[in-house]
Structure formats: structure tokens, C-alpha cells
């Protein structure tokens, strides 16, 4: 059955506008009067039945007279269906408005700055700019009137959009901040005896960071330099930290773009005097000794009685040795006397046994024959003096090495050939430093002798003394000669001694000697 529309030009059908309908079906319509008009009379649906009866059913109209709706079931005896809607001019009331202000960062709003009708429902949609998202604080609608609660936007699961539906009765501001979309790389830690300023499991990709690794109190980075290791497109890459002069702290500034491992292993500083009982050993400078002398007589408070007494820290000093070698160090420490910490920063020796290798020297002979082994060979060893070397090592290369105990200052020289030590020399590679304890006996710390063996010198050398053999002429001519006309070494052939009056044995012996070769 066809639907006939008898409506004015100032009427708009909102939504579906069916052209036909069957008996028993429901007719649903919404009509809207255009601006400046309203419905008068109320719109209706007119049904003419098969018996020529007329059934009129009115639309439901709102209070403004501008919007009409109907949901009507067409009778089974309907013969025709007509929709009637007429309008008359109407003066529309000027709606009250509220002000809209956008306070946006890295995003856009479907509602621009301006005004909207007060009390009318509106939906606002925010869209984050490319590369940004609403991953932080959710956007809000904040009202001008104090005390009015804010309306929070609903952020989509992908955090790229946010929306809210409100019915504003007050001026309002849309506050929204979209944040840059960040990606992260994973961090793995391989630390030993140290701590890292970076502790998180991830860091932002592409953002420069500075990492500091610090060795524990009794450790330092004297082995493998701390580093960051990662794979760049499958290729291993390593970036080393920069260490301070004491190898206690390492710093690295870099931009992570790949998952990386932070490697930092500090070695524990073993006390150099651990095998010498309860003593402390320090490498001190003259400045350190000067600072110590100013603290030597210190006032100490007894924790039990509270009494103050003056303590002579000099009694804790067992010895002060000047070692005539460069003693390596592995860090710094405070100079301590018993339980008293002077707070004087001194260096800590790296080892108690120091090895000095002076290198190799070849013992050469002047003659190039057996006479060289009758030479006198002597070696000067620093702080030891001149020692004799067995002349059987003429023509060979020997080595001089010295091991020094930095605790006692005593030393042993090792003289070796082909890796085998054949001679040892014990001596002192140090001397006591004059430093009085302040006791009544005024003993010198470490001993009462002033060792000046350093004046021997510090450069070893070898002195070889031998006799040069006389150059003896060698006869190598082939000619007929008379024996008494030959001097030097000669070897004879076809010797004739016919004129000599000799026994047979004497004759044979002389012939044998001359043919073998003799000096004349």
C-alpha cells in the first residue's frame, strides 16, 4: 500500500521515509519543522478503511511544537494511508549559550573555540596528532564555576582518540595533552662488586642517557673496562666507560637504540699485608707524613668513661721504608693507627712482592777461543754491589731480575740463563726514613742504621776482564823447506831425516809430530 505525504515545504522527515507499507506493519516517522516554523495543527496519519471509514491518529509533538514522532500499526482493513503535516511561522526563542575554550597540546578537538547552546547535549571527540597518544593524564572538561566537578574523557583502547558526551550549563574548558609515543629497549645488568646509577629494566629508545658505575668501597675497575654491549643488526658492538684516575668510577653517555647489556666488574682490593698479621701498609708521600705529624698528638674521648686523653699516634708506626723502585698502587685508603682514623688519604700498594726485570745481556768473549773461559766476569746489582759470575756462561745470554718485599724492603736478585736461575743474591732495596716516635728513648722508626747503598747506583752492568791471546802465524804455503827455517804453526809432509842420527822409535815419533802439526 502506498503512503501519501501531504506535508508543508517547511517540514523535514528525519531518518527513514518509507514510500509503501503493508497492513499490520508499524509506521515509524519523525518530523522536524524548519527554523522559524512550528506544526499547527498537530501532524497525523489518516487511514481510509475498505468500508470508507476514516481513522486519524495524531503524532506526539514536543513542547516547542517543532518536533513530532509517531509509531503506528497500520490496520488490517486499511485501504489508503496519508501523512499530513502543516506548519505556521513561529518566532524561535534565542537559546542561551555557554563559552567553549580549548586548551590542547599535540591533539585536535571536534569542538572549536566559541559557544554552544546551554543545556543541549553535545559529544566532543579528541584526536591525538601523528606520533602522539593519550598515554598520560586523561583529558578533562573543566567548568568555570568553582566547585563543579570535572568531566573526564573516555580514552580509546589504542589511546589515539578520546570522547565525552556532556550537557553544559556553564562555560567550560577542554584540557587535553597528548604525549609522544615512546618505545623502549631492554636493559640487562652484569655487575660485580659495584653499583650502577641506571637500575630500570627498560630505557626510552633514542633518548640520550648518562650512566655511572661506582666500585664498592674496597674494589676498583682494574680489569676489563666497564662497557655497554649490544647487537646492531646482528653485529656485536661495545662502548666502553670512561674511568677516573683512581679507577673507582666509570661514566658513559650514549643513545640506546637496541637492547643492551651493562657489563661492570670491579676487582676486590686485597689488603697487601694480609699475610703479615694485624698491620696496615700504605704508600705515603712527604705531604702525607707532614699531615700525620700535625695529628700525631691527638685528643681522644674514651667512650666508656667520657674522659679525654692525649694519644701519641706515633707509637703505632712500626717502620717507614723508602723503596728504591716504583711501587704500583690499586687505590686509596685512609691512614689508620689502631682504631684511630686520621682521615689522611694515602695510596694502597697493589702487591707485597714487586718484580723488577732488568732484561738480558750476552756475555761475549774477546778471543773467540778457549781462552775466553779464563775471563773474570762481574755484575753490578743496584743496592747490592758487584758480584762474580761463573765464566762458563761466556757466550750465553743471562737475565737479571729482582723481587722486592715492599713490606720489609728486602730484595733477592735472580740471575738466570735460559729460564734457569743459577745464582741468588740477597740484599735490601730500601732504607729507613728518619722519623722519631716522640718516646723518651727517641728510637728511629724501623732501625738505627742509615743505609746509603742507593749511592751505588740504580743501573746494572756487566764487567768482563780477560787476556788477549797472541796472534801466531800459520804456515799454509806448500813448498820445500828446511825445518829450522820455519816459525809458527806448520804441518809437514814427505819429511826426510836421513842425515839425523836417530833410533827407529825416535824417528817415527818425530815424523808423526811433524805430519800432525807443530808450533816452531
Q: Which helices and strands occur, and which strands form pairs?
A:
Elements lengths: L2 E5 L3 E3 L12 E8 L3 E3 L4 E6 L4 E5 L1 E2 L5 E7 L4 E8 L1 E3 L7 E9 L1 E3 L4 E4 L4 E7 L3 E2 L6 E4 L7 E2 L1 E2 L5 E6 L5 E6 L1 E2 L3 E9 L1 E3 L5 E3 L4 E7 L3 E2 L6 E6 L2 E6 L1 E2 L5 E6 L5 E6 L1 E2 L17 H10 L1 E5 L6 E5 L8 E3 L5 E9 L2 E10 L3 E10 L13 E6 L3 E5 L7 E9 L4 E8 L2 E9 L1 E3 L28 E5 L23 E2 L13 H13 L1 E2 L1
Parallel strand pairs: 1-9, 11-20, 22-31
Antiparallel strand pairs: 2-3, 3-8, 4-10, 5-6, 5-9, 7-8, 11-13, 12-14, 14-19, 15-21, 16-17, 16-20, 18-19, 22-24, 23-25, 25-30, 26-32, 27-28, 27-31, 29-30, 33-34, 35-44, 36-37, 38-41, 39-40, 39-45, 41-42, 42-43, 46-47
What does this structure look like?
With 520 residues, the protein is mainly beta. A five-stranded mixed sheet has the order 13-11-20-16-17, with no helix packed on it. Strands 24-22-31-27-28 form a five-stranded mixed sheet, with no helix packed on it. Strands 1-9-5-6 form a four-stranded mixed sheet, with no helix packed on it. It is elongated, with a radius of gyration of 56 Å.
Helix count from the secondary structure assignment? 2
Number of strands: 47
What low-confidence regions span 5 or more consecutive residues with pLDDT below 50?
437-444
In whole angstroms, the N-to-C terminal distance is: 161 Å
Specify Rg, calculated over alpha carbons: 56 Å
Structural class comes to: mainly beta
Main β-sheet, spatial strand arrangement:
13-11-20-16-17
Mean pLDDT, nearest integer?
85
